[in-house]
Amino acid sequence: MPIDPVDLTAGLIQCPSVTPEEGGALVLLQDTLEQAGFFCVRVDRGGVSNLFARWGRQGHSRTLGFNGHTDVVPLGNPADWTHAPFGAEIEDGFMYGRGTTDMKSAVAAWVAAAIDFVDQTPPDGALILTITGDEEGDATDGTVALLDWMSTAQERMSACVVGEPTSPDHMGQMIKVGRRGSLTAWFTVVGKQGHSAYPHRAVNPLHALTQLAHGLTSAPLDDGSEHFDPSSLAIVTIDTGNPASNVIPAQAKMTVNIRYNDRHTGADLSQWLRRQAADTDAANGTQTEVKIKISGESFLTPPGALSSLVADAAEAELGVRAELSTTGGTSDARFVKDHCPVVEFGLVGKTMHAVDERVEIAQIHQLKAIYTRIMKAYFA
């Protein structure tokens, strides 16, 4: 029996699955997929809920995968919403609710397309879905856990589509074929507290920190590469916790976020950051502790068969040719790319993470139709 992607989206929205809560979303998906003949396994790890589903024979040489998530970001102030955040209310052609854009509609569209596809034209191959509840969180026990389990269970995707919202303004505008890397660095500069009237008796960590900040931001990291925009470095916070106007504090802190292209690696940037901190300490007599977290390296799926297949499907449905892009933040494609070729294609992302997040109902149907075309073309 055909699955209505709008009804399934509404059911998922009504599950309050703010990371790391499962909220019933994966239960609903598992029930829906199992009724359609899919083999399903819950792959929970570290308090995170994940779902693996497969239609077709294990180990088939042609296995098309989909990666998505049902967890959502917090609501913000619920009083600011004009529609119930988990109500899936429809008004003027839009469905409102947290996760409508990012990315429960895409999950529903792929599931509905997959169930109809295997029922109407069973392919010579297999379909795999990996759905996580930890994309919006630390992402250490979400898609990573699914891929770890798949390796042990000898499950493999030949190619994968990630259903993140990819277009800034209109459906079919962009396909993501890569993403920049992401790195966060925390600096704690320790000096010597003293009276501001006697600065020679103190070691001012703020002076050192501002010099460090200037050194990090005074020149661009690069001017971009063939497929990527220039890398960016942003100072996101500077803190001292000092309430006094006549005291030089003992320490100061700064947090920096870098989004980097394929001209860098996380390791190279980490060495550069630590070297900058050491040079600043040498010039100021301070001691700086540097902590660094690399959330994901930059990657690129070279334009080719997979990106063309997705672009052709979107163009056939919408009449527009998608741009191949590497812009935006990180996604779980950064993990999938070590498993198989991967591209991202989904909805327009204008309202994702915002108050009154919403999706145009027509776009859900369009996305299901595009996903169906992708499946048909892949297994043709």
Q: Which features does this protein show?
A:
Aminopeptidase; Alpha-Beta Plaits; 32% helix; six-stranded mixed β-sheet
Give a quick rundown of the structure:
The protein has 380 residues and is of the alpha+beta class.
What does this structure look like?
The chain has 380 residues and is an alpha+beta fold. It has 2 domains: 5-179 and 299-378, Zn peptidases (Aminopeptidase, 3-Layer(aba) Sandwich); 181-296, Alpha-Beta Plaits (2-Layer Sandwich). 32% of the residues lie in helices and 24% in strands. The protein contains 9 helices and 19 strands. The two termini are 23 Å apart.
Largest sheet: 6 strands, mixed
- Separation of termini? 23 Å
- CATH homologous superfamily assignment of the largest domain: Zn peptidases
H and E string = HHEEEEEHEHEEEEEHEEEHEEHEHEEH
The count of β-strands is 19
Q: What name is given to the CATH topology of the largest domain?
A: Aminopeptidase
Low-confidence runs: none
What's the arrangement of secondary structure elements?
Elements: H1 5-13, H2 25-35, E1 39-42, E2 50-55, E3 63-69, E4 90-91, E5 94-96, H3 100-120, E6 126-132, H4 143-153, E7 159-162, E8 174-176, E9 178-179, E10 181-190, E11 194-195, H5 205-217, E12 232-239, E13 247-248, E14 251-260, H6 266-284, E15 287-296, E16 299-300, H7 305-318, E17 323-325, H8 333-336, E18 342-344, E19 358-360, H9 361-378
Parallel strand pairs: 3-6, 3-7, 7-18, 8-17
Antiparallel strand pairs: 1-2, 2-6, 4-5, 5-19, 9-16, 10-14, 10-15, 11-13, 12-14
Helix pairs in contact: 1-3, 3-9, 5-6, 7-9
